[in-house]
């Protein structure tokens, strides 16, 4: 049923000339963008990109951690298929010889290039960014990223430079008088300049590092974000009827000297609101910094006269909590950790036709298409393959060695929105997060447990109306959960609780709904495209 409906909805989009692709991945970026309606954001360049693009308001990662998420969307395989929940395994050696998105394009005539953080560096990408399989050229990493955690941050309260969370800097005083993301921009521009003279189509993946911590960014961007406009999310507390297993104790923040100086009692003492506002301010300033670099990159693409031949996709690997539920960072199954921005600008589809038809499905504003249907990051690979006319099939349960996808192309969704037509579409997004114990801990790290330490897995199903989470016992040797041992449950009803602050999993009036969602979650992603479900 799933496969049949997918092929019915598949619409091949093509042009006389092969499209180029620019994939922009912004590390740890939540939907803190003006085009997503965030009034605190200052992102004029991304907002400009969005004026000729499809904006997906319900796009979700499959795990809120860098390496598992990136390997997932670059292979279009889910974490349970990759068996990667931490940073310490490489799928080609440990699981199966899965084809990646850039590898598929490379095998079909594309010049592929990785600039910055695309794959997570280290063991999970074979310490090579999956070279030579994925890339035509040697992946680029900025020289100055070696100073990422250098003690060069200084505040009025500190005599000596420190390793702080908050670290606005003067760029001219930094090592080599630059920052990693500025180096990434420079290399990306050089690649585009070279490709403008090349007849071969290209796939350029640019991975910007901010707003990943530490918040080391040019100090000048604070002027766009005066402190008075930021408040701590309310209620600034952990919900009493939610199990401790769902809590992420933001251990990575606690390692920073300015956070350590607060002398907070682990794990429940909250960051004081006065300091919390500074964290939120620096997050937004970091986003504006990256927005500025993205604007420069797109302007360069336009000056080279190849913008009209280049599909641009802007996305993140996962979101980031800014005090919601009194927690910070990623490492959870909440919307703020799993929801990501996804902006897709396709010449000849969204980029030009919008001028002729701006009255589109899911509401419209100016030249922007807002799509509130659910999509997942595993859908990126099949979508780009679709646009390149080298579509891949949906994976069967026995597809460890073939090029296939555990997502579906969302081009039919965009075309339906442009025509203001209904479409049968997936009803839910799936994600998961591991824990080493029920109670938060530093050793083992509750936020980043290694595979052998995992004792529980939180599986979550997200529909347009609800989020259901089941925390199950998990066997790291067999890589399997035990559905007969549910440790904890969560259920959130977005009709009145968009912030996921009221767990209704144990209310009698939700019992039947919870059971239906549990069955849907247990049956998995292959059953999410169903005309019968209305969740």
TrEMBL record:
<dbReference type="GO" id="GO:0046872">
    <property type="term" value="F:metal ion binding"/>
</dbReference>
<dbReference type="InterPro" id="IPR000917">
    <property type="entry name" value="Sulfatase_N"/>
</dbReference>
<comment type="similarity">
    <text>Belongs to the sulfatase family.</text>
</comment>
<keyword id="KW-0479">Metal-binding</keyword>
<dbReference type="GO" id="GO:0004423">
    <property type="term" value="F:iduronate-2-sulfatase activity"/>
</dbReference>
<keyword id="KW-0106">Calcium</keyword>
<dbReference type="InterPro" id="IPR017850">
    <property type="entry name" value="Alkaline_phosphatase_core_sf"/>
</dbReference>
<keyword id="KW-0732">Signal</keyword>
<keyword id="KW-0378">Hydrolase</keyword>
<dbReference type="InterPro" id="IPR035874">
    <property type="entry name" value="IDS"/>
</dbReference>
<feature type="signal peptide">
    <location>
        <begin position="1"/>
        <end position="16"/>
    </location>
</feature>
<protein>
    <submittedName>
        <fullName>Iduronate 2-sulfatase isoform X1</fullName>
    </submittedName>
</protein>
<feature type="domain" description="Sulfatase N-terminal">
    <location>
        <begin position="19"/>
        <end position="390"/>
    </location>
</feature>
<dbReference type="GO" id="GO:0005737">
    <property type="term" value="C:cytoplasm"/>
</dbReference>
<dbReference type="Pfam" id="PF00884">
    <property type="entry name" value="Sulfatase"/>
</dbReference>
<dbReference type="InterPro" id="IPR024607">
    <property type="entry name" value="Sulfatase_CS"/>
</dbReference>
């Amino acid at each position: 049923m799933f496969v049949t409906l997918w092929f019915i909805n598949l619409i091949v989009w093509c042009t006389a000339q092969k499209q180029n692709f620019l994939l922009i991945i912004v590390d740890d970026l939540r939907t803190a963008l003006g085009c997503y309606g965030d009034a605190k954001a200052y992102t004029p360049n991304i907002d400009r990109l969005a004026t000729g693009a499809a904006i997906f308001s319900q796009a979700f990662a499959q795990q809120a951690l860098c390496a598992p998420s990136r390997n997932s969307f670059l292979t279009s395989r889910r974490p349970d298929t990759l068996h990667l929940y931490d940073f310490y395994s490489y799928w080609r050696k440990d699981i199966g010889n899965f084809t990646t998105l850039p590898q598929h394009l490379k095998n079909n005539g594309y010049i592929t290039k990785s600039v910055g953080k695309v794959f997570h560096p280290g063991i999970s990408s074979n310490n090579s960014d999956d070279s030579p399989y994925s890339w035509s050229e040697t992946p680029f990493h900025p020289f100055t990223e070696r100073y990422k955690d250098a003690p060069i941050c200084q505040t009025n309260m500190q005599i000596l430079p420190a390793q702080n969370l908050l670290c606005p800097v003067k760029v001219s005083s930094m090592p080599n008088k630059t920052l990693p993301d500025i180096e990434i921009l420079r290399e990306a521009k050089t690649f585009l300049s070279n490709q403008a003279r090349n007849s071969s189509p290209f796939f350029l993946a640019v991975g910007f590092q901010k707003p990943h911590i530490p918040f080391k960014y040019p100090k000048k961007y604070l002027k766009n974000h005066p402190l008075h406009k930021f408040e701590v999310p309310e209620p600034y507390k952990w919900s009493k009827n939610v199990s401790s297993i769902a809590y992420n104790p933001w251990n990575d923040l606690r390692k920073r000297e300015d956070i350590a100086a607060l002398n907070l009692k682990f794990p429940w003492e909250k960051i004081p609101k006065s300091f919390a506002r500074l964290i939120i301010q620096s997050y937004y300033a970091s986003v504006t910094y990256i927005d500025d670099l993205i604007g420069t990159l797109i302007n360069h693409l336009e000056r080279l006269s190849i913008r009209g031949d280049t599909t641009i996709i802007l996305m993140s690997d996962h979101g980031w909590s800014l005090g919601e539920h009194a927690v910070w960072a990623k490492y959870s199954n909440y919307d703020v950790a799993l929801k990501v921005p996804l902006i897709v600008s396709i010449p000849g589809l969204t980029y030009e036709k919008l001028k002729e038809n701006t009255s589109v499905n899911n509401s419209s504003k100016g030249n922007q298409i807002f799509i509130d249907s659910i999509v997942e990051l595993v859908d990126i690979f099949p979508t780009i393959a679709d646009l390149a006319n080298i579509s891949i099939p949906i994976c069967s349960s026995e597809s460890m060695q073939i090029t296939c996808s555990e997502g579906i192309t969302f081009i039919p969704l965009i075309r339906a929105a442009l025509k203001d037509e209904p479409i049968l579409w997936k009803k839910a997004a799936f994600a998961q997060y591991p824990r080493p114990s029920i109670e938060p801990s530093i050793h083992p790290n509750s936020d980043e447990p290694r595979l052998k330490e995992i004792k529980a897995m939180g599986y979550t199903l997200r529909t347009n109306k609800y989020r259901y989470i089941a925390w199950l016992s998990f066997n790291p040797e067999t890589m399997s959960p035990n559905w007969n041992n549910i440790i904890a449950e969560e259920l959130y009803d977005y009709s009145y609780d968009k912030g996921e602050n009221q767990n209704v999993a144990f209310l009698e009036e939700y019992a039947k709904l919870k059971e239906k969602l549990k069955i849907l979650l247990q049956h998995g992603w292959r059953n999410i495209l169903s005309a019968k479900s209305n969740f």
